[in-house]
Automatic annotation (TrEMBL):
Keywords, sorted A to Z: Amino-acid biosynthesis, ATP-binding, Cytoplasm, Glycosyltransferase, Histidine biosynthesis, Nucleotide-binding, Transferase
A single Gene Ontology CC term: cytoplasm
Occurrences of domain ATP phosphoribosyltransferase catalytic (ranges): 53-205
Protein name per UniProt: ATP phosphoribosyltransferase
Domain of life of the source: Bacteria
Species the sequence originates in: Ethanoligenens harbinense (strain DSM 18485 / JCM 12961 / CGMCC 1.5033 / YUAN-3)
Length: 211
């Protein structure tokens, strides 16, 4: 039987995913000793792990070159449309929030507000839901810089501990939604590799249930 191919978001979600696979009982040595390799075989799980940037995990799963993806809900909300979201893995917990300079009122005045974010779709949707016409400015990282430099009135970004906001004189204005890592599945793979995918989800649920 061909292995199932799993696209895994490299970076923050990688360590918890390896921990999850180890709890299931898979030998993750290839992942722990990966060097610069991007495709790693986990033979006892009959799996192949593809290490990719978050948005690319969705692209590979949607195009069917990977059967399964492990990716944050943030990336799904911003980039995803056609796949099954089958499990909340419970790690990579953080939230989307609006934040701005400490002590500076945000929801006042008539001037159109500028929002800097790495997630323009989510930010636009959030303010549209409030009937607020805002200007969105796309930033690639360290979004907290934008209000500090005077580029924006506020940001829409991920907040986990709040340390980045605090250490840069910013504060939360409003929560948008919680975020955690999810398992997604390519639509045809769900039928074609049903048994293998169900076995994996069952094992994950068993391990998670025992936590
Ligand atoms: N501070 C955080 N706390 C917890 N989870 C986070 C945090 N920041 C991001 N995440 C989650 O981890 C995923 C991967 O984040 P990570 O920081 O590793 O990469 P990234 O920010 O998407 O890209 P880059 O590689 O450019 O930093 C995010 O998509 C999100 O779901
Ligand atoms: O609330 P905290 O615990 O401080 O975490 C939040 C920070 O973590 C993420 O940034 P990341 O480290 O991924 O860097 P980036 O801004 O370049 O994406 C996020 O964009 C915030 O900046």
């Amino acid at each position: 039987m061909k292995p199932i191919r799993i696209a895994l978001t490299k970076g923050r979600l990688e360590r918890d995913t390896v921990g999850l696979f180890q709890k299931i009982g898979y030998d993750c040595t290839p992942l722990l000793e990966k060097g610069r390799k991007l495709i790693l075989a986990i033979p006892d799980g009959n799996m192949e792990i593809v290490l990719a940037k978050a948005a690319d995990v969705i692209t590979y799963v949607e195009h069917g070159v990977c059967d399964v993806g492990i990716v944050g809900k943030d990336t799904i909300l911003e980039n995803g449309h056609s796949f099954y979201e089958v499990l909340d893995l419970g790690f990579g917990r953080c939230k989307f929030a609006v934040a701005g300079p400490k002590g500076k009122p945000f929801y006042t005045g008539y001037r159109q507000k500028r929002i800097a974010t790495k997630y323009p779709k989510i930010a636009r949707g959030f303010f549209e839901g409030k009937g607020m016409d805002v200007e969105i400015i796309k930033i690639e990282g360290s979004v907290e810089l934008a209000p500090l430099l005077g580029l924006s009135d506020a940001i829409v970004d991920i907040v986990e501990t709040g340390a980045t906001l605090r250490e840069n004189g910013l504060e939360m204005i409003e929560d948008i939604c919680p975020v955690s890592a999810r398992m997604i599945v390519n639509i045809p793979s769900m039928k074609l590799k049903k048994e293998q995918i169900e076995t994996l989800t069952h094992k994950i649920e068993t391990v998670k249930g025992a936590e």
